[in-house]
Specification:
Oligomer: homotetramer
Low-confidence stretches of chain A: 435-445
Largest interface: A-D, 38 and 38 residues
Structural class of chain A: alpha/beta
Helix content of chain A: 40-55%
Mean pLDDT of chain A: 92
Keywords (chains A, B, C, D): Cobalt, Glycosidase, Hydrolase, Iron, Manganese, Metal-binding, NAD, Nickel
Protein name (chains A, B, C, D): 6-phospho-beta-glucosidase
Shape of chain A: globular
GO biological process, one term (chains A, B, C, D): carbohydrate metabolic process
Order of helices and strands of chain A: EHEHEHEHHEHEHEEEHHEHHHHEEEHHH
Cofactor (chains A, B, C, D): NAD(+)
Family (chains A, B, C, D): Belongs to the glycosyl hydrolase 4 family.
Largest sheet of chain A: 6 strands, parallel
Number of helices of chain A: 16
């Protein structure tokens, strides 16, 4: 069947990731012709947008595909009539991330971009901006798919499902990275593998790992096979624990299962190199130096060391499956609706889905270890309270959310952290600090 | 990847359907090499087995594939080491079906092979035989898949899930027939369609009908598009009712929604031509005449008029997906496990599944009309009681099952029907009538 | 503790039942001082209101309690500031009931006041009137309890819970009648018994029957002990069926379990004496003759033959427990909220409750026989659709409701019945027939 | 009605609590004649049994009731034919408790009798002994009620429900203490109050506090009203947090909500006075000095300072309600069965129940704050894993349980604690350390 050409709007288009996304779109152009690519950013990100935008145009020209690259600060223009909208924005830029990491550590609590108090503040800053984007989509592109890559992706996706009519999916690179590791481990193609993921964003467990129909999970556990990412310290799992668990935890689960060691490690890393925000800041500066080079006509290798590997591949794969009715299995953040009966129906969960033209259809996990349910429920309770706090700006609910987080050791610490972090973020939290104008959608994730 | 050659055991191999199955296996041989095909039957079906078996051998020779066709009365020999076991048996042969149809009609109740009192008695006869086969599989081929085509497929599948460790799936031709109708209606390939089925075997509703990602359901309802089968009278649906319902009912639902007309029609048909068993008996005699012809080397056209269209296609497609880890979407009978939260967790349901090497993974239906739940729950309650009655031989439970069936108008009629039908079937119901030896697995379905 | 004097508003106060209610209020006056009794009726019921009201005043004078009896056609005046509001109204009076009974029987379907098509039409007439009353209560007496005795009490109660904020409970006399039968059977006081009821209004089963802590259910079943009411023909239960069931069905369940016999009996009764509406009409005329007698100063004996025995006792007992924080166990219609997990959370159910000052708290039934769930679910599905139809006036939903009722044999019959009955009731169904003014709250139940 | 005289077996009868129980039984003798009281203990507790037993006999003589007090080391003799069996035993005596408290604190983890690692080890020691008692009851007194007061009462009750057919209830004094505080606060009788408890043993929240039908919860929160017990340090709740929560937490919840302060406090208390076990040891020695006095003929005042206030009152009240079919509301540990739909069906929960002769019937809580669910689910997950570990002796499951506890900061700490504590308890853990004979049922709780 003949399919129509596409319009894609990228909110936070000035991000250093954009060249990777470009590369993916160019590769799939024959199958999925993105005729109009709109890179949107805010005033504060204008320079980066221009640098990245020019590189994008050079890449398109080099590849010889008829893709138009539009650069704009006018979000509504970009969204109008779009088929897909992706978000890769960071409200408050790296400076805000830096605070999310530093303040908790000063209270002896994990300070991390998506996990713990840092993730909560990021959610409080981000949810209102994303819901604002949803209002535009509802008005200007009601049939568009919103593909959300903005962290904390689980909380953001849940907020969108609860407070908007936009068709949306949340996405993380980590399941794809595991799949690639599995395929490499057994020397097979990715499509010959089928790992089963159970959980929520950044808190999932692999509970089966099929390779050509045979479950290799026990073998992987025995081998100590694992995977991690640039942003999470790769401490080794206790082999007795993994065997008892009968599942492979997401690398983010180190913040829970190895809380003390991870915190100690964070503290010494902070003393040496600063936090992850500090490192990413340096990497980004180097990348934009490269992007400026008018001779550069393709994605530079160095981007692969940026972290967030496979994000763009995951994004393009999802768009492609929705566009072509591909019906392959992808691991996505979707509404629970009874799929995991021990979590609320309106929670977002991260599970395998079949992606058809009408959207992702979740597959029921075949096995959920009893021992993971308690932690999942506790973190999901924190997440749902955070959605409510982000939408209402109710400080009582925010306190309940912070105190409910398993990494926060007491109500007293929760209260101190909340007070200090709300204050540090006041320019980005109009719902809590009503006198402040909202700065939307900065570009670096 | 290199895959091993297969052994397939067909219980009730002397059935008139076997040539269709053969045709399918031969077509797919390159992809799915069934090296050993074992056709099993019982002493009473020996002649038919030989006729069908010889035709099968001629078909294989004609096609030039290296498939060995074994004919045997020794079920255990056929099952030992099999990769797939299929069942297409009829306990009590057409004579029992005839009673299932005639006795209820004499009490002014729908008399049908799978629906109502007839279906219940067929279940009581069949479940013990299938569970006996499961015992053999557990012992002799514990990794084999049991593909159950024997009606009432929903009840039989539920009995297997509840009372055996065998990996099993239940299968019906009706969803495939709908898919083909949908593709034909829109002039597209089957794989461009995706109808969504919600319900249980012979009691499902189509609640969405995607064609290249667009839902054509309302359009189909407005057009009065429908489909039916040789064994169910194609009375027209009330268009107001279908519009109110917002779903397309399985043709078997005519027995409920048009009970009075269907019963009236059955009575006049019975007076004219006898019941469906009588008609099938004539068709089968003609088919076996054809099969006997040593010049016949392929499936005869006339088989297509037999009813049960696409059964073999559905069967071969399922085997193929399991064998090749195909991950396409098929509509199957599987354990509910919370997929339809208004039915018991251990009930069998009929829904879309992704079929991977490790088995079918059900997809959560996206919408379940409120108005179909009551009938589904009522019939499922009857089904679960029937499973219990079939396994225990408890007449009290059998009475509760019969009285629970929505087509049975009162306890008094239930009691009369049960008494008369148990008596008529006593040679096939050792669990109720303990003094009788069990006759297993006759061949015609 | 000192409790305040009460104001009670009785909507449909001109009903022939009122003297029984009076008797109960007078008896409990010391414990529960109803200082103001407001009997409300509509213009069409003015004469009856006056007759009953005068009798009420004579009864109060005779008893020497300081209760003021107010008669009014102004509902808002009666409701303003009330502590309790009770409803005992019949929209369309006995003439409408007569149609509810006659029309279905002409189509070979059970014609009954609360069960089947008759009950559905009564619900369609009644729900809007009750919700109108709720609007008044929300405005004029937001802390009042609405005690709903108007049938079909389960549907009406569900409509109130779904579409109003009024605190309300539905009530039926039948559980109390069973309790009295049980106490009499064992020669003990009522409070020494504890029957357990599971189900919904007019469709419950007794699943335990404690007498001083010992469950006598099996014994009762073996004895054939049962109870019934003036309005339901007391055909004998099949003893084998009851034993298999392991529960005692409500007498209304005869319409389901003995559908054919009950229908046959209805037809011959209709030929002989007319339907129940005809009989009640004659009884009421006789009662009002008696009430007119200025010498009558107490409830006449003859009222006890009217049917609806113990209604007033049940009503007064409920008010008394709410008023005195009594915490005794009463069987009431309340929101399900997960108490019966096989029915929707927002359904009304009829179960044992502890009645404290803040309201009834349902007790989880200890055992629910599997064999009753299917019928309960099917009838509840009909009820929930009926609530929706009554509130929206959507004919499509009304057709789904009628077709969903287990006593309606086909969609064709459902459609014919619906058409004929909506037409016959058009003056009482403004939501379906928008051009018609609504006649509210007539007085005879 | 005439009720039969009773036999009561008290396992761990040599406990210092026994005189309080005696006092309660004597007071209620007229209503609930315990004719035979059997105090059972083990060889190691023989001396205490004799001291307490002699005091019991003097108390009975003084009161002039015809109660026979039997002292025995033969548990089976005591249980045979009993109507009630109560357990107030401590496996490993105070020495084991001392380890439960000391070892975790050395790892910077809360060390407490029922909460955290200490509670887990107490469960591992206690569950096998209680299940052993259940075996005796099943054989020798199948109709008896087992009233379990042995901590951790929630886990022990869940183990009994999962692994025995004995009718049993778990009991804690803390809800009764709250009720008394509430009545005192408002100057009303206990029966005029109705606090609503939601949760599990030692982890409940008060979500409503009715006084004569009016909910005083917000008022209590605003006043900072609270209650505590001798064994839990009464740190003040954060008023902002309580207001946000909208519920009053059990005093045991301080270990979670104030983890850091409670731990700090424990450490300094340990340095000063030792742990609670050390204190209780001193109190007990003093009590037994008093009990020895042949002039003592009633419960000494000093016992009230022992901690566990109202335990005996709660126990006698429960027995009395079961015996007299009283149907009052008591807060008990019972099987969940869907009452709290966010916890497993087979979990034990602590909620209000109506206590009738046939047993306690749970009342559905009217409101469950979202913010308490996550913690409840996490702790219940730990509890259910602990039951499994206690019954199977599987060290993998024990590790999962320990790591699942919200107060344990990492898998590494969980592993270290488990190793050290299993080793310290090896004489009481035959299921883990198979070579060791089981010491059963010591007497002091």
């Amino acid at each position: 069947m003949q399919r129509k050409a596409l319009k894609l709007a990228v909110i936070g288009g000035g991000s250093s990731y954009t060249p990777e996304l470009l590369e993916g779109l160019i590769k799939r152009y024959a199958d999925m012709p993105v005729r109009e690519l709109w890179l949107v950013d805010i005033e504060a990100g204008k320079d980066k947008l221009n640098i990245v935008g020019e590189l994008a145009r050079r890449m398109v020209a080099q590849a010889g595909v008829p893709m138009e690259v539009h650069l704009t600060l006018n979000r509504r223009e970009a969204i109008a009539g779009a088929d897909f909208v992706t978000t890769q924005l960071r409200v408050g830029l790296l400076a805000a991330r830096r605070q999310d990491e530093h303040i908790p550590i000063a209270h002896d609590v994990i300070g991390q971009e998506t996990t713990g108090p840092g993730g909560m503040l990021k959610a409080l800053r981000t949810v209102p901006v994303i819901l604002d984007i949803c209002r535009d989509i509802e008005e200007l592109a009601p049939d568009a798919w919103l593909l959300n890559f903005t962290n904390p992706a689980g909380i953001v996706t849940e907020a969108v499902h609860k407070h908007s009519r936009v068709k949306s999916v949340g996405l993380c690179n980590s399941p794809l990275a595991f799949t690639k590791m599995l395929a490499a481990e057994y020397g097979v193609a990715e499509k010959e593998t089928l790992p089963e993921f159970v959980g929520i964003n950044h808190l999932h467990w692999v509970t089966a790992a099929y390779v050509n129909g045979e479950d290799k999970l026990q073998e992987l556990i025995a081998r100590g096979a694992s995977h991690t990412a640039a942003n999470v310290k790769a401490l080794d799992w206790d082999p007795d624990f993994l065997r008892a668990l009968g599942a492979i935890p997401s690398y983010y689960l180190r913040y829970y299962y190895m809380r003390d060691q991870m915190l100690a490690d964070m503290k010494s890393a902070l003393a040496a190199d600063g936090t992850r925000a500090d490192i990413v800041g340096r990497v980004e500066r180097e990348l934009f130096e490269l992007y400026r080079d008018p001779q550069l006509r393709e994605k530079p290798r160095q981007l692969e060391q940026r972290g967030g590997a496979y994000y763009s591949e995951a994004a393009v794969r999802l768009m492609h499956a929705l566009y072509t009715d591909r019906r392959d299995i992808q691991t996505l953040n979707v509404a629970n609706d009874g799929m995991l009966d021990f979590l609320p129906a309106d929670a977002s969960i991260e599970v395998n889905c079949v992606v058809a033209a009408q959207g992702p259809m979740p597959l029921r996990p075949q096995r959920v270890p009893e021992s993971i349910k308690g932690l999942l429920q506790a973190v999901k309770a924190y997440e749902s309270l955070t959605v409510e706090a982000a939408v209402t700006g109710d400080r009582d609910v925010a306190l309940l959310a912070m105190a409910a987080h398993p990494l926060v050791p007491s109500v007293a610490v929760a209260k101190a952290l909340l007070h200090e972090m709300l204050d540090a973020n006041r320019s980005y939290l109009p719902q809590f600090c009503g006198d402040i104008a909202l700065e939307t959608g900065a570009n670096d994730r």
